[in-house]
DNA sequence: ATGAAATTTTTACTCCCGTAAAATTTAATC
DNA sequence: GATTAAATTTTACGGGAGTAAAAATTTCAT
C-alpha cells in the first residue's frame, strides 16, 4: 500500500534522502552521486512522485518553458513549423507552449501576455506583421529572449526566415525561360513577406527585360484559398489576366486559383493543350496534391526551425551578448511539378 | 516615475487597498464594491501590475487552465477544431493550453503528463485511439475532468463526436442513387472512427441490397494525402478498383486519391465524360478546393466544439455528478459538390 | 441617528520548492 | 590511516499569493 506522495518533503522521507538533494536531483540527475541517484530512482518507481511545477517556477527566474507564437495555427505552413519546433524544444528538455493569434491583433496581444506571465526561458515568434501591435510585441521582446521567424518585424534578438529576393527570382526566371513571363497575383499583404515578394517579382522581371504585371485582388483574413478561388473565378471569367502564366504570392492562394481554373474549364499545366500555368511559393504540405501538382519554391522548413531554435538556445545559455540583431536568410529551392 | 510593481503587497501599497481585497478583485472584479474596483483599476493603469501566475496556482486546487489535446495538430480538421475550442475557452475566462501527440503514443503520454502537472480545471481530448496507451489516458481522466471528442476511447466523463452510422448511410445512399454503388477505400485504422465508418458502409450497402466492397490499402502515420495518392496510383494503374465510385474513409485520403486520378488522366466527377466518382468524409477545410470540389459528408465543427465545451464547463462547475457517461452524437450533413 | 448588513482591513498561516550556509558524512588519494 | 575533496544533511529563509478569522469600517434602510 503506497501512500500518496504530494510534496518533496514526503518523498524525501520515504526515499531516505534529504530534500535539498532530491531537489538537486530533479534539476539535474547527473549532479548527484551515482548511488544516491539509484536510491532516488528506486523510490521514484515505488511512489511515482512529481514535483509541483508552480512551486518550482516560483523560485526560478527562468523556467524551462519556451513559447511558440504563430499568427494562424490552422495554416499548414505554421502547423508544420510548430510541429518541428515543438519536437526540437522537447528534445532539448524544454516545455514548448503553443499560441496562435488567429489572425487578430487582440489575440496576439493576449497570447504574448499569457506567455509572458509564464516567465518563459525564451520565445519563438512569428508576428502577425502588419496587424501586429508593434509596441506590444516590442515590449514582450524586451522581457523575453526572442527569436523572430517568418515575418521580419524588427524586434527580438534575431530573425530567421526565407529570402524572397533569392526565391522569387528563381521561379520568375524559370517561368520566363519556359513560357510567357508571369504576372503576379497578390492579396492585401498580411505581413512584410508579402510586400517583399511583390518587390522581388518586380525587380526580377525588370532584370530580365520584362514588364512586371501585378494583380492585387481584394480579400481579408486568412482564408487564402477562398480568396484565390473567388478572385480567380472573377479574373478568369472577366478575362482580366494579363498573362497566361500566374505566379501566386503563396501556395494557398495558388491552390484556390487552380480550383477556379478547373471550374472554369481551363486546363492548368506546362504541357501542350494547357491554357494556364500557375505557380506558387512556400511548398505547403498540400502543394503536391493539387491537380496538377503545384510548381513552387520550397521554403526549407527544417532549416528555418533548426536555425531559429539554435539561435534561441544560444541566447538562453549565453544571454543577449549580440551587438547587432542578426538576420538569417535561408535559401529556397525551386520545385518543378506540373502546374507550370 | 512609476516604480516597478512586482508583488501584490507592493501594489496594495500604491493603490491604498489592502492585499486580501486586491486578491479578491483579481479572482472576480465583481466581488468588490464599485468604488473599490474603480480605485484598483485606476492604480492598475498607473502601475500595470499582474499577479504572478505560479504563486496563484500554488494555492488553488483548480487553476483556470483548460487543456486541449489532439492527435495531430497539422491535420486541418483538428487545427480547425482547436481554433474554435480555444476561442470558446478564452471567452469563458479560461486559459487554453494546446497539445499535440504528433501521432505518437509516447508523445501523447508526454502531453498528458505535462498537462496534468498544470493542474488544469478540465481537459478536452481527442485521443490517438488505437495507438493510445489506454491505462495512461484513463489515469489522466481520473485526475482531470475530461470530455473526450472525435475518437470514442471509453474514458472521461463524456464523449462528443459525429455519428458514423448516420453520416455514412447518407453518402452511400446518395452514391447508390446517382450511379454505381461505391467501394470503400480505407487505410489501416488509426482510431475507432475508421472502423465504425467501414462497418457503417458495409451495413448501409447491405441494406440497399448491394455487395459491400472494402479496399484496405497500406500506409502508416498521418500522411493521409500521400497514402491516398500513392495507393490510388497503384490501384488505378493495376485496374484493381472494383467500382467506378470510390468512397474514401476521410477527405484527406480522398484529396490524395483525386490527385492520383488526375495524374493518371482519369476525369473525376459525376457528370458525363467522367471515369470516376470520388467522395470523402469530414468536409475538411480544403475539401472545397479540390479539382473537382469534393462531395463529402460534413462534420458539424461548431456543434462538436459547442457541445464539448458546454459539457466540460458543466463538469467543472457541478463536479462529476453524472451517473453514466453520456455520449453525444452529432449529425452530419451531406455536401454535394462535383466530385461525385 | 441608529442598527444591521455588507465590505474591508489586520493578522497570520499555508502552498511547495529553490537555495544558501554551515555541519557532517562519504569517497578518493597516497 | 591521515588528508582532502566531494557529496549530503541540517537548518533556515524566501518567493507571491490564497484564504480564514476576527476586528474595524462603510453602506444603507429604517
List keywords for this structure.
homodimer, 340 residues, alpha/beta, Rossmann fold, 3 domains, six-stranded parallel sheet, four-stranded parallel sheet, 12 helices, 12 strands, 14% strand, elongated, DNA-binding, DNA-binding transcription factor activity (chains A, B), transcription cis-regulatory region binding (chains A, B), transcription (chains A, B), Peripla_BP_I (chains A, B), repressor (chains A, B)
What is the distance, rounded to the nearest whole angstrom, between the alpha carbons of the first and last residues of chain A? 69 Å
Q: What is the residue-averaged pLDDT of chain A? A: 92
Number of helices of chain A: 12
Largest sheet of chain A: 6 strands, parallel
Helix content of chain A: 40-55%
CATH architecture of the largest domain in chain A: 3-Layer(aba) Sandwich
**What percent of residues of chain A are in strands?**
5-15%
Order of SSEs of chain A, N→C?
Answer: HHHHEHEHEHEEHEHEHEHEEHEE
Amino acid at each position: 500500500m503506497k501512500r500518496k506522495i504530494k510534496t518533496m518533503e514526503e518523498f524525501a522521507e520515504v526515499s531516505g534522502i534529504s530534500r535539498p538533494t532530491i531537489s538537486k536531483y530533479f534539476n539535474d540527475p547527473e549532479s548527484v552521486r551515482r548511488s544516491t541517484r539509484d536510491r532516488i530512482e528506486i523510490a521514484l518507481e515505488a511512489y511515482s512522485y512529481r514535483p509541483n511545477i508552480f512551486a518550482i517556477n516560483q523560485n526560478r527566474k527562468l523556467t524551462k518553458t519556451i513559447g511558440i507564437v504563430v499568427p494562424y495555427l490552422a495554416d499548414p505552413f505554421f502547423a508544420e513549423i510548430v510541429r518541428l519546433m515543438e519536437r526540437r524544444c522537447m528534445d532539448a528538455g524544454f516545455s514548448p507552449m503553443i499560441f496562435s493569434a488567429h489572425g487578430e491583433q487582440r489575440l496576439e496581444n493576449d497570447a504574448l501576455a499569457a506567455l509572458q506571465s509564464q516567465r518563459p526561458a525564451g520565445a519563438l515568434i512569428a508576428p502577425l506583421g502588419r496587424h501586429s501591435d508593434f509596441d506590444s510585441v516590442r515590449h514582450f521582446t524586451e522581457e523575453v529572449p526572442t527569436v523572430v521567424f517568418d515575418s521580419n518585424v524588427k524586434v527580438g534578438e534575431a530573425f530567421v526566415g526565407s529570402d524572397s529576393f533569392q526565391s522569387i527570382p528563381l521561379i520568375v526566371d524559370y517561368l520566363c525561360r519556359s513560357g510567357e513571363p508571369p504576372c503576379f497575383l497578390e492579396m492585401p499583404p498580411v505581413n512584410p513577406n508579402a510586400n517583399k515578394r511583390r518587390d522581388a517579382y518586380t525587380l526580377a522581371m525588370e532584370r530580365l527585360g520584362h514588364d512586371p504585371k501585378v494583380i492585387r485582388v481584394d480579400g481579408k483574413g486568412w482564408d487564402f484559398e477562398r480568396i484565390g478561388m473567388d478572385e480567380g473565378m472573377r479574373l478568369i471569367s472577366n478575362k482580366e489576366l494579363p498573362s497566361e502564366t500566374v505566379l501566386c504570392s503563396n501556395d494557398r492562394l495558388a491552390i484556390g486559383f487552380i480550383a477556379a481554373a478547373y471550374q472554369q474549364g481551363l486546363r492548368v499545366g506546362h504541357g501542350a493543350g494547357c491554357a494556364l500555368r500557375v505557380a506558387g511559393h512556400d511548398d505547403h504540405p498540400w502543394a503536391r496534391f493539387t491537380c496538377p501538382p503545384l510548381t513552387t519554391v520550397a521554403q526549407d522548413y527544417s532549416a528555418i526551425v533548426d536555425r531559429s531554435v539554435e539561435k534561441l538556445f544560444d541566447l538562453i545559455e549565453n544571454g543577449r551578448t549580440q551587438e547587432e540583431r542578426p538576420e538569417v536568410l535561408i535559401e529556397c529551392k525551386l520545385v518543378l511539378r506540373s502546374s507550370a
